[in-house]
Amino acid sequence: MTNLVNTFRFARLPVATDTFRTEVKAFLNSYADTTPADVRARSWTGFNADFSRKLAARGWVGIALPSEYGGANLDAFSRFVLVEELLAVGAPVSAHWIADRQSGQLILKYGTEAQRRFYLPKICAAEAFFCIGMSEPNAGSDLGSVSTRAIRKEHGWQLNGRKIWTTNAGNCQYMIALVRTSGTPDDRHRGLSQLIVDLSLPGVTVQPIKDLSGDAHFSEVFFDDVVLGDDAMIGAEGNGWEQVTAELAFERSGPERLYSSIVLLDCWIEYLRLSGTGAAHVAQIGRFATHLATLRNMSVAVTSQLARGASPVVAAALVKDLGTEFEQSIPAVIEAAICANPSDAIDAELYRTVVYLSQIAPTFSLRGGTREILRGMIARGLGLR
Amino acid sequence: MFVEAIERILKDQCSPAVIRSIEGGGGSSSVLWNSIADAGFLDLLMPDEMGGAGLDLADLYPVLAVLGRYAIPLPIAQSIAARALLAPHTVVPTGLFTLAPSCHRIGERIVCSLTPFGMLADHVLVDDDGCLLMLACANAERTHTGVPRSQVATLSWPKDAPALSIVGQGAAVQTFAAAIYAGLISGALFRVFEMTLQYANDRSQFGKSIGKFQAIQHQISVMAEHVAAASIAAEAAFQGGGGLPQLLPSAMAKARTGEAAILVASIAHAVHGAIGVTEEYDLQLLTRRLHEWRMAHGSEDYWNAVVGRHVLASQLPTVTDFVRLANQEALNVKEAALLATSSPISRLKGLA
Description:
The structure holds two protein chains of two kinds. In chain A, strand 6 (about 205-210) and strand 7 form a beta hairpin. Chain A is an alpha+beta fold. Chain A contains 14 helices and eight strands. By secondary structure, chain B is an alpha+beta fold. Helices cover about 50% and strands about 10% of the residues of chain B. Chain B has a four-stranded mixed β-sheet with strand order 1-4-5-8. The longest helix of chain B has about 30 residues, at about 170-200. The termini of chain B are far apart.
């Protein structure tokens, strides 16, 4: 079962994406020069609806969605280029990120025509932001044990329960929630469905949760007798596990699992250039560049599988595990490097950026599937289970 | 098609028994060498009009990987590279070529330290301060390292020994060497990974195959990640239309495969247990080479520093731009100057 490893063959982005990259670079123009690195380091956790709307005005939200629903109908390679350019400078993409990456794709794949016509144009216009309703207090890695429950009513569903670690719930209009519609948690993957929940409805309470860095990007979301219509069901009733698996494949297969600490790396390199102290760190800088180049080639290989219509679930898990290890190594190394001599002065912006990323870095290998879950998936892909 | 053809030869002529016999010093290498040379594989990169196969650089990668998979005990890859480097400048002699990592004038002698395949080679190609230098081993003094079964040797010649020197072509040796060793390592890593996966399924303890234990599964998953990373990094060194590997992708390839080599070898031995470190079990044929090839022509410490100097000197706005363009040729302008200031090997005069 070594096929998994053999899928990582060198591939190039189509030459046509060069023009698109130039346009995106022009759009982002002076963003990196005018925004401090510690703000940019928050990239896809920092909420900025204005930025998302400006991006949408260029047609770059939901770019992989068909044009009949307001999308740009561009391929997986163009999406790779857009995501790479946004993350390379730490653009504040969080508001539309989930909708662009997975909710829109999920609605396109499993939604009814009416649902597509209702939600997708709003996603592409950056008028509807989505959050992910998967984790619960007692259902983390063991996602099959969710207990939030929707009960069938005459004209829809009545929802009770709660979700947790929901990024941006307080700023989003909608959540796609994995809930139990029949059976009990002991039934595991059977009896789960996905519902689109309008977060403005009565009975929905969002409680922000502060993280260790002082930010409050995630939340706990409570559902108390929330009344939903029939059209809240996305996909078939009872098909939730299959759908959530497909959704997680969208979540993991993009290049964002390499770039979480990249603003810090650039900030450090710039500091070393300006202070003329880079010589002592060339091997370490080179190692980061070597790893980034390799991970990027791996991510392009996954993208070219996506572009061919494949669903490279395990290959994406492999890149994510390796990529998050790289992302976590950057603040760890830079902390040591900038404090290697206690008598040296440290740039304040660099200091704030490294401290923020050191604090938040543990989440890189939690969100979107923990390191242990991913390694289990890889082992299964290798035929070891 | 070249890959399948060379793999057929290796299957027949490069068995573990043949490898043991060649590296033990007792066996003849001529059957294996001749079957590869006679099939024309040494001139894969030479243009058609010079009697070669005119292979694209990108198609050389799978050939090197298969040589690595079979733990090749002869300098086939080095000879392919040497012949491609020499062909534009001179009539290439027959025989086994190797590439030397360094060349120093020490006292009255020319010294190439710790040269891979130095015990076997007929000719050595080395970067002599920017010149491409070819020396014949017939008149060299070969000093074995003392490491059992190693073919590495320090070679030295009187300073006036006959040699061919081609001005300005020397830097290509180290770059090509980095790329071919990356290719060899990536192939060997893949074989080590296959063997480890097989062993984890076959070996039973506590009433089940050890591959059922999560602790083993996770180690093998990590191994798969690094084997995949190493192979795509190595493959990236053989892209581009110039016919020769470019500096930055080759530097990254050697650095990334070298880093993977220690990790993968260590997990393979951990999973195999004691049988893996025995002479009779074939794993050692690969893991010994992984370490030797990692050290050949500069380890990841050397090549990462080469990359790092380019990053610092780059005018590009982000490191993301840098790595994106590193696979193209746009960045290779100042490479010679940067390499000249970055040779830790040259500071080790008088050693080994």
